[in-house]
Amino acid sequence: MLKQNLQVVLFFLISNCIYCQSALIKGQVVDEQKNPLEFVSVALLKQKDSTLINYTITDIKGDFSITEAPKDSLLVQLSYMGFLTHTQNIVYNNTPLDLKIITLKESPNVLDAVTISAVVPVQVKKDTIAFNAGSFKVNPDDNLETLLKKLPGLEIESDGKVVAQGNEVTKIYVDGKEFFGGDPAIVLKNLSADAIAKIEVIDKQSEESELTGVDDGNKQMVINFSLKKSKKNLGFGKFSAGMGLDKRYFSNLNYNKFNPKTQISVIGKFNNINITGSNIQGFLENANGIADESDENDDDFDKTGNRSLSGYLKTEVAGAHIGHEFKDKVAFNADYFYNLSDNSGNSTSKRISYVNANNFNYESENAFDRVSKTHGLNFNYKDRASSTNRLSITGKVNTSNTISNSGKDGEFSNEAGELTTTNSQHLYNENDRKAANFNVDFYQKLKKSGRSFSTGFNTNLSKQDRINEQNTFVTRNIHRDNPSEREIRTSRDETFNSNTFGFNFKYTEPLAKNHYFKLQSFLKSRNDKEDIYQLKNTVTNNNEEELLTFKYKHLENSFQTRFAHNYVTDKLNIFSALELQELSRKFGIIEENPISRNLFFLNPISTIQYKPKRGRKYRFSYRKAIRNPRWSESSTVVNDLNPFYIRQGNPDLKAEKMDELTLNANIFNFKSSTTFFSRIQYQYSKNAIVQSIEIDDDFVRTRSFQNSGDRKRLTANFSFSKKVKGLGVRYTLKNRNAYRTSNSIINLQLNDVTSKDFMASVLLENTNKNVLDFKFGADYSINDTSFSLEEDLNRTYKKQQYFSMFDYDVSKKLSINTQFDYIVFTDNQFSSDLSLPIWSAAFSYNLTKNKNNICKLLLIDLLNKNVDVYRRSTTNYFEETTSESLGRYIILSYTYRLNKNQSKGKKRRA
């Protein structure tokens, strides 16, 4: 497969060289003072229908050139921030054409920070890359998530995280204002793509840098969606509803009204087709490599990652958002969100466990039912009106109630395959949680240029009440003449209270030119309390009762002071600091003498960022971090609610020390339409906190923790994308690698674990997506996991995925979308290798010319091959769980677009 990929890339490169030799159209762009203008967008269109043929930008001298132009009557369009758009008719005869000097006139109106032409797909300005939404094909009922997936350099990962230019997107804005707290998942799934004019990916400076004008190197990746003019000041949205076979249904509602001062939005969802948002995707979830089981809880089957979305899921969602700008740069935003999730189903699990000389297997039939209700209120107030100070106040209140019932019927067998023990478990869990946080940040610029300070306060409060009931029936040695039976009923009531308070202060003093001294202090205090009442009843032993009650407290304080030097120029930013950190802990049962720990550390920190020119950025960082043991890892109390999985802490644990090196490279070349992003990170931990597992002859697993050896992690991610001139396609190559070493202690013996991951992918897609959007490609990944104690259990897991997507507007009313994936899984530890073809399709028909009434037929998993497989590797077992899934279903839906401004006789492309 690698050889085939190289041949494809070579073909692209040869084609690129051939087309680069064609004739060109060139010119120079200047302003009215004859100064050359850089980064002016130059678009070449057909005069007859304004179809985009090609585009480029001017260089630092104002020069531009366009190749691959057809013989025709053409239109040259130039656009630039703060200037009037310039258009010029030309006749091209396939011979070089020099347009000489073109002068742009300044616009009398104040425009946005980034203005994008009506046809140019992408534009670069300072730390912003702006995409014209009209250049990417979207259907009238698509949401923003669908639109983002079409943009080069952006990815939406399986967990919903948005990654732009190799960095996670932390906030999403609409017209520069927060929408539902800026939560990417809510914004992307609940706003229509056809309402957007442009998408800006911004490498945003910190509040302090924006206020003082001194770049501190602390940036975050944000995305801003700008609405079409037709969507402003008037209400817009859509309502969708659908019914299908096997009583499947869904309905979606969103309504928005945005004006320059006030933004109001309402959303609602109701469905039973296993989707939490507006999209239908993610049919298959798999886990590779070594998983972190430090928070594993066998008492709650649905807690472990993606299995919570197995089976059958009913979702109800309601939300409202209001934002108001009292005056310029002074705004308040608030939103409320309600979510109900009802998840039930059946599954089967296979587990291969190894405990040195006494390995065993475990198989179980599982049933689960989980109902969760959550309420969330978010608000923020931001005052940026003053030129010398800024104020930000944010808050959040959440409540949730979760009721879970699950059952397991399991069988233990030894290495010879002999059945030795069976167990039947029923678990009931009710979890009520209330949480709130409040943050205040203030930034002040002082009189001397570069001198400033900032201060902030934050608090997090939470309370959790859990009711746990478990009934376990165990039959031991049933293949013998005299088996033994035992029934244990346990109830456990838990109350957790956690309070965290934090304070920070930062001061910047300018030294010599471009040099700054910085003093930074951080204070954090966390107080955890646990109140436990547990009653255990052994029914088969004359109803013998065992009562456990206690109150546990864990107090942790951290104080950090940094003395830093910062060197700042337009191209180079160097930050180096020495951090003094004091950590103290006091923990234990309240009635007993507490255990105290006091530690002091010196932590070096350094960051170098280099931007040689626009579109290129390199960043290197080093930091030393200290991780204190979590309160659950050092707890002195034993949790034996599940008699087959006993958890206890280790009060003698020491702090874990970690050194981290990170190198990032981001390159965006507009003229060649090339993007390259890479991230290499190395982490080395000393005194690593690892699990200690003991398993007895009755298969009871007891987990604790110890400081043992070192932990290493090396990850390297690369992405390269390039437009092939003349062919109208773009190819993307990606590669991800990970090397991890960890260890655990299995029955008092050290087990060294090494995990190696490799992933490579190739994607080919068209660049002009106005009418047709297609993509196809392949992903290949492999994981090798090896163990020092059990070399015969070393695991090799492979996944191959071949995919294609075709979205075509057959006419102005009819569009067709089809997706086909072929996935192959192989695993040397499990015999159930899978080859899964997954095919889905949709037919969308506009009932009216204005595209406000849409009928859609969804055909999901046409081959009825859909399954949900979850594979897990830990330090002492492999596990495979196969769950029920919806399989094939068909839904016919109707969508009505709620647009108040219906322009008659005006044709617009969505």
Automatic annotation (TrEMBL):
Residues 444-781 form the Outer membrane protein beta-barrel domain. It comes from the Bacteria. Pfam families: CarbopepD_reg_2, OMP_b-brl_3. This is Outer membrane beta-barrel protein. It comes from Seonamhaeicola maritimus.
